[in-house]
Fold this protein.
Amino acid sequence: MKSLFKRWLFKITLENYLLTFDYEARKDMKINSNELVTLLKENKAQLIDIRFEKEFRAWNMPFAISIPLPDFPSNLHKLDRDKIIVTACPARNRAIIAMTYLKTQGYTVKYLTDGLIGLAGVLRGDNARKFIETQN
């Protein structure tokens, strides 16, 4: 019951989010792949892949949680409120929508500016091996 109250307490309306949006908020909503990898290594972030299920099955980051954008409202229980939630898709369009929705639900959230394709570029070869070793 306490967690339900806490969730309700931190919700903001989209209108209030927009009315208080400033340059600092614009900077705060973004994260790049290098910053994300650091936070994941420190167990301070959770990567959410918001692509459709077929896209996720075709290729994915094994440490990401798959929650397709249309399924967000019914899957908030999969998110860790104690971590920075990072939404991602190959580019940025759906990740920004998901980030905005989660912001209105009271989450600390950012979107991945260089997308999953950028993250794949950062995590290749020895970088991927070293990163996976930190996740086990």
Q: What stands out?
A: Helices lie at 2-10, 14-19, 23-28, 33-41, 53-58, 93-104, 115-122, 126-135. The first strand starts at residue 30 and ends at 31.
